[in-house]
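Hi everyone,

Forwarding the result from last night's run.
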Amino acid sequence: MRIATYNVEWFDALFDDDGALLVDDVITARRKLPRRQQITALAQVFRAMDADAVMVIEAPDTSARRSSTRALSRFAEEFGLRTSAVVTGFTNDTQQEIALMYDPAVLSVTHDPGAGPDAPRFDDVFAIDLDVDAAPDAVRFSKPPLELQAKTVDGAEFRMIGAHLKSKAPHGAKSPEDVLRLSIANRRKQLAQAVWLRRRIDSLLEAGEEVIVLGDLNDGPGLDEFEHLFGKSSVEIILGQPPHALYDPHASRALVSRISAQPTTARFYLEHEQRYLQALLDYIMVSDGLRRRHMPRWRIWHPFDDPQCWQDDALRKALLDASDHFPVTLDLSI
């Protein structure tokens, strides 16, 4: 089985309110490409991955007029993708949903959010002291994680949690001091969300469930300039500690040395510096049972770092046109 996570930049802008693809030459914010070109590139990437399930980060919007499920179902139908079934969870107001596209002949999947004494449901409020003043702060997810119960046709069951953590930009700052203050406050909120997610993972593992956490964590060892203030990145918090630690080989490699070459899953153009920045933002973390029993194999579909992607001219170009993130896949014998 192949499971993927893929952050698709400006996916929502490629559909009308009825979920139909806007195959035209209108320029979107995606590297100033025509919508037609991005759509074609995305179709090629999805076909090349040929995944049984894809956790789509920044999926099309769900609102009073729009439906992420409808749009992604139309996308799969248009290009003959196996991942024709779509499941979503709690919606948000950012026009960037989290959704799972999957092959119904391989998997059955349901949105199954849970809660516990230490971790409320992801659409609820999490109380935690962010600033060490002995008073709890109320934390909410701007993009509530998507918690799923999955079952293979052979009867194997596991949990999947799709996540998109993000530290907000310091909007409203009027001075360098304001920028620093707001940045640290927003960073605290992101780490609180990571603690919330980790507590839910702990409760699932303690109940004997196998867990896959995947998505864009917008964070990594050594990535954030404020990390020294807090000791750990969101990634390290979510990975956790034995006996309930999760595993992702790319995160593990980055944690070994923060000054050596690192795996990367995203590539952004810095206009003011006229260069590209690469970062490790996208992960597929698995519980120990899945790692040890099912011979997992991870792959970052990086157009320059992955030999097969590099040697395929059409796929290399499609990966660059489709999004500023590259897919990560996990092959499991399950």
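The CA atoms of residues 91 and 235 lie 24 Å apart.

Cheers,
N.
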